[in-house]
Amino acid sequence: MKKIGILIFARSSSKRYPGKVTQILYRKKTLLEIIYNRISKKSKNIPIIVNTSSNKSDDKIALLCKKKNIKFYRGSLKNLIKRTVQCCKKYKLKSFVRVNADRPFFDVKVMNKMIKVYLSNDYDIITNQFPRSSPKGLACEVANTKIFYKIKNLKLLKSEYEHIFNFFYKRNKYYKIKNFTDKFYKNKKHLNMSIDTKKQFKKTKVVYDKINSSSYIDTKFVIKKYERFFKWNWVQL
């Protein structure tokens, strides 16, 4: 079995809502804890590592990880490719799953299906983003670390350092990329289930409070029951 890990990319220097990942979302748990717990409940045999920066602004994330006994790695703030490669080296990962820390409804069940496809085939990348086939906030990629080792010393565009799969999507003919589509999400691409602003954070909190469950909250159930909350314009409650 290819050694695989789940990397949760987290930083505090978000332009629209700084520090959101360490804000309390539900039952005294931060957004980062919610996402970590969500994944760990459905992926118990795969290591989960918070991938953050060594910048002072992310000290709070590191302290939270230490306090909660969560594995983490700190590296370059701006060069995510370098940080990702170093993180994978430290934890001896042959492949990894990318999850962003602003996705409180991330569909772990879909992720597990994508991992299964990846492990039983010879793809470089399994993704639901090429083309995007899910709502914003449910993006997931599974990748072979060797493709990152090969480009780590190249001079890339700023956008390619920040969005680490852009390089491969632009040069897709050189890589084995499989787009994973879940039928349920086919007509749900207009929804936004990520947290970019304080307003979205507050409305996400309302959904968690309404569901009132400390167990795994099924993403599809949330959409079926509260789809109106996740329209791009975030309608008033």
Would you mind describing this structure in some detail?
With 237 residues, the protein is α/β, with parallel strands linked by helices. The protein has helices at 31-42, 59-67, 80-90, 108-119, 146-149, 158-162, 166-170, 198-211, 219-226, and strands at 4-9, 24-26, 29-30, 48-53, 71-75, 95-100, 125-127, 141-144, 177-179. Strands 5-4-1-6-8-7-9 form a seven-stranded mixed beta sheet, sandwiched between helices. Strands 2-3 form a two-stranded antiparallel ribbon. α2 links the parallel β4 and β5. The longest helix is centred in the C-terminal third of the chain and has 14 residues, at 198-211. The mean pLDDT is 94.
Offer a concise description of the structure.
This protein is α/β, with parallel strands linked by helices and 237 residues long.
- So how many helices? 9
Q: What is the 3D shape? A: globular
Fraction of helical residues: 25-40%
End-to-end separation in angstroms reads: 47 Å
**Kindly state the mean pLDDT as a whole number?**
94
Order of strands across the main sheet = 5-4-1-6-8-7-9
Rounded Rg = 17 Å
Q: Count of DSSP E strands? A: 9
